[in-house]
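ugh ok so i messed up the first submission bc i forgot one of the chains. this is the corrected input, ALL of the components this time, i swear. 650 residues overall. if the numbers dont match what u have on ur side tell me asap before i send this to the collaborators (the ones from the other lab, u know who)
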Amino acid sequence: MKNPLQNRPASGRRRSVAWLGIASAAVVLASVAACSSSSGGGNAGGTGTTASGLSTIQLVYDWPGVDFEAVPIAVGQKQGFYSQHGIKVNLVIPPDNATTVKMLAVGKGDIGLDSTVDVAFARAAQIPITSIANYTQENNWGLVAKPGTAINLSNLRGKSIGVFTDSWTKAMMPYVLKAGNVSASDVRQIIFSDNDLTPMLAGKIDLATNTTNYAIAQVESATGKMPSVKLATEYGAPNVPIWVWIATSSWLSAHGAQARAFLAATKEAITWSIAHPQAAVNDFIAAYPQNGSSAKYNLDGWLATIPYLNDGYGLLTQRASEWTEVVNALKAVKELSTSYPASTYYSNSYLGG
Amino acid sequence: MNARRFLQNAQRVGFVIAAIALIFGVWNAVIWMFGIQPFVLPTPQSAISAVVGQWSTLAPLTWQTVKETAEGFFIGAAIGFVLAVVMSAFRPVQRLIYPALIGSQAVPIVAIAAPLVILFGFGMLPKLIIVAWCVFFPVVVSVLDGLAHIDRDLVNLSRVLGARRVREFIVIRLPATLSPLFSGLKIGATYAVTGAVIGEWTASSQQGLGTFLLSANSSLNAPLVFGVTLLLTAVGVLSFLLVMAVESVATPWRSRSTAPRTLRRPGAGRLRGQDSGGAAAPGTLDARRLASTGHEQ
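and heres the new structure output, hopefully the right one now
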């Protein structure tokens, strides 16, 4: 017996399919329009004013989960540094670690914490992002091994090394390989998207790559011991900051005073957090109890971050050379083809006196 | 007749092209209507152009992901089918395992990915486990459903005719599982690609499209991100079409009222569920096949 639908006139079926197509397109367009209108098409709250007269700043974080790098933000909120400068800071968590720039560019945030390389990529993609201050001042990326295991670069051949898909790792790995006098095919690079320290501790890979503050926090929490670390700067990598505070040129033009207030308050919050690490971490845990990490992890991580916040140039202060070095490192590994003068990427003019 | 078939096929291809054009048209219209910037949503043209421009890099990565998808799919399908048959044959086993199977699908794969890597290393195995994990469940459910709806009269008749359980399974139960099996396989084929990408995201000694997607995303290369996403979509759609093609060969009664000439046997008589000497549809009984067991009574 034939399918009764097969007996329907062909023209009728064609009409049905055509109507189905038109209806589908209409539903898609209506959904997008509804989403667009419900989100307001602008800032998620935007730089508004609270009932108490504070200007609200939407701060977009660099990672899809809040962690100890947000300690100064929590301190700024809890200890009143932000309110003293007339601002209220709302921390916004992005969906992944590559969306902070995009959220700022479409007005879904005001200021962001992001990696230095993302600013270079944003400029190459014609996204008008400016770095307004450094968060850390130095490059604390390196090779990590189990506690008590010496890292010998002359023994890299045949070793398995955990690497991430981010551009910072890609820019730094050539320095590792060059220092070990090996090529990429001489080592086994295992690609991770989130965590290479647990497999390293489990003995599944010989070496992990990470920044020291996260490596120390994780390994200390897991083993109670410090991991072995060999910083990339020890074997020729540029000593440039990894994280910076960013904003769009248009937001900065319209809200320069808020940017200055934010950086001034954040500077005070960082100074306070360095002087009172335990109290600062307590403030962080109270402000963000959903951070998902133990108090020890957060304290270890914050203590490991402190040494990289101030390198003699002063908290938050940027320098032209760091941008030149970052862009050159990315161009060397063909991650970037376009570069601009260093002054295009950053501005210290929001740091105040 | 051939001309008519050609026209029908041309019409089908035309609808596929029209569907793709509709999707790309809506995509472009959304970008134009809402002024979406290219770093948020690039045009499909720029996404395809990015893939074409990097094809020499993407080709081996695509092959790697296709391999993970295909191998994991076959493993998942085989495990799902065997599980369903065993569960159907032994009710206590079904009652014991079925809740666990449902629970297995509620587990976020990302959460078990890290332990899988620690246990099984960074090669293909953890990826295959993740793909199989995505595929086996729709197969189990579909096949179980098929086995639960077999005509009891046919089973009783086969027993009256003296068929052993193995023969009964081959002649009655197995053909009856084919249609639901392919329903499960079609769902599994599309899930398999997602499983392969998640597998690559856990840890890989070899890069595939999943890890490349992350690299492109971290470089803010939106056209390439969407291009690779289109490529992954194409792999999923092709997997689905491949299963459909196999289905049309394996279950001819679903698309034709008569069996192809090559399958007909001279002198074959009409039996229940047959039109003119073709293969019996599932759930119908071919007495000659049962008789060949030598247990006809």
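quick check: The beta strands of chain B are 203-204. that seems consistent at least. Chain B is about 75% helix and 0% strand.
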